[in-house]
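Hi support team,

I'm opening this ticket because the web form for multi-chain structure prediction keeps timing out on my end. I have pasted the exact lines I submitted so you can reproduce it. The total is 822 residues across two entries, so I didn't expect it to be a heavy job. Is there a limit I'm missing, or should I split the entries? Thanks in advance, R.K.
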Amino acid sequence: MGDLVLELSGVTKRYGDFLAVDRVSFAAPRGRILGLLGPNGAGKTSTLRMILGITPADTGTVSIFGKPPGRSVQRRIGYLPEERGLYRRMSALDTIVYFAKLKGMRAHKARARAGQLLDELGLGFAKDRRIEALSKGMAQKVQLITAIAHEPELVILDEPFSGLDPINQNELENAIRRLAAAGTTVLFSTHTMSHAERLCDRFVILVKGRKAFDGDLHEARAAVPRTIKLESENDLSFLKGVPGVATVEPPTDKTHHWEITMARGADPQLVLAACFEHRVKLTRFDSSPPTLHEVFVALAGGEVEGAEP
Amino acid sequence: MRQVWLIAWHGFVQHATSRAFVFGMLLLPVYMLIGGVLPTASQSQLAALGGPIRHFAVIDKTGVMLPAIDAALERDVVAMGLTELAQYASEHAEPESFRTSEPKLASLLLDGDPQSPGTIDSIEAMGGIGSAFVALRPSLKPNSPPFNAPRRRFIRVEIPLEVSGATDILEAARPYLSAEKLVTGPRGAAPLWAILVIPQGFGEEGKTAEYYSDDLSRLGVREFLRAALDTELKRRRALALAVPDTETGTIFGATGPIRTIDPDPEQIGAVSQIRQYAVISAVIVYLMLFLAVFMTANMVVMALVEEKSSRVAELLLSCVRAETLMAGKLFTGLMLAMLLIGVWIASALASIDILFPTAKALVENLMASVSTPEKALQLFTFFALSYLTIGVFFLAAGSAATSITDAQAIVAPATMVTMPIFMLPIAIAVAPDGDLGRIASFIPFFAPFAMMVRSIGSPDGLDVLGALVVSIATLWWMIRVVARVFRANLLRPDSSTSFTGFLRDLWRAPRHA
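Hello R.K., no limit was hit. The queue was backed up. Here is the completed structure from your submission:
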């Protein structure tokens, strides 16, 4: 994978009797966007806190820029926590400058950088406003700027899109893309699959603290059997005999909707050809590759509470 | 270190610029000012009303003692004026000029005993207090304040007829002595302080005067009357023994004059009033520092709880280590405490000239006791060590909570646990260098607090060194133990613990430290 910014190896974390993270391993190459996906309680936030050095791992190793988490790498990381929290009575500009200074940036540079980022995200007019006077979306942008103002090489975003309206979500997506384009490695956790599908170069899916998948979108799609959606008034049970067809699900109501599950690597065109041979009249034939949501649901099985398409 | 400073300064600015803090900070000087000025105001008011004058009445059945009492009253006024004039002359007259221009008067005022009958007679012979002041005036230093002759302490009023004519004097006098009824004095109606009944044949065997008063704890009037009656009885005995009346004054005027000299005015004596000031000063300073410690420690703890509940703490922990955060918080509190104390001291000094004399003496005594850089440094060091010791404990308690309500449930009993540490130094203030003070200076936790009080005085160098070693060692151990609890609690942003849970964490922490 070349130049690795982050590498986890067999990391485990327990809180009392509860096993939050179970022998998780993955890596993030420089300049890429890595999505950490999983249903609620999958262990995403615990994993991120171990990467940040906020909580120590019980077993396994975390390596950031080749070093363990802690003081030596803290300044090279930016963090946006899941639960947003800023000093309510501080101005947006002062907040960003304060945290940038804590990360080692000089005051004048932090001030200039904060002003620039506020302008870029359309908040230049609100730089002197108190946080408590900002809308939720504006405060979230300030929090994002707080995470990136000190020009970190690795940015960790925990559920960055939660609570944002579609316009702000779109702006945030663009900001993340700009970061990656500038060579920053971005690791973000989410249970909203559409953002991950649009943004991420790679995905790690956690289920019940364990890693269920690690790869890119192509590999994710290949990891689950392809499903073909057909609509016809005819009986399609004959498709069971077509080579590569694993299962045939007849309609359960009056929609005439059939679902054909193919074996891994099988060609969907064989199903279409068989339908022609049997002179079946099709009103729908959809052999699109599975969405990330479908992959996620397939991998997570019953543990998908809270997952959004 | 930069991060510690950034956190400390950030917290300091946040608190110090908040209206609530400024209000709390300024409230104490306002209270101090009211407490320090009010007695002066009430005294001025009393003076305007005629001062704390005791009105008394006499029923003289001998028919001969009353003139002696009246004469004694006049001499009392002169004696009081003389005392004040002597004090005034010693402070405001140019001694050499005064001795040259008015040698006899200068000798009486500067060297004599102003209370002695001989001095009083001499001043009366010169024309009284007014004439003495006129003679003194040319020798006064430039810009000397005016001399205000004191008002009389005692005034004799006529006994109400309903009392003098009553068969049961005590019963008839009761409404007057309890101020239910007033008598008529020279400045109008006034409460009657006492009644003296002198029986016929007073001075003979078994004949005793009776003194009635509602307040037998203050016997100034009785002693004055006793002295007047004694003098008159002696004079009458002398006359009965054929001593010429012109000689009785000479006999009773003979006194042994006593000059009052303090061999070391800078040194606080063991039984002097200044010694009491030192004790009171130590207690006041300690209470101020104690208030500063508690006020700021609580503020920092509440701010920490807010940071924890609003998840700012998690963001901070992604920037700095828990120990750095804890140190920053501690220094925030210390800086706030220093600001509080600085403002309080500045307020006391700025208002010193309008304070009640006792309050003024307290402030002056306090400033004198920490006037050298060494003493100021010593006091600051032990104050800082006291603050840090208690601050570390409170921060750990605060870190265990996720809401202000939880914090109060933990911090309130934690305060009670630490109360003996705060209370003991008040007992030490009475005898700072006594056994209790010295022993406490070597006991962990107690040492910095005990030495904070003792620093107002002059503790032994060995005690200071011992207390310093004990305090630093205790603090180092506390930080090691508490930092672990602090860190663990901060990383449990969603869970709060009880007070007993907090104590359990503290108990277990050393094993893991």
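A quick check on our side: Residues 166-181 of chain A form the longest helix (16 residues). Let us know if the file doesn't open in your viewer.
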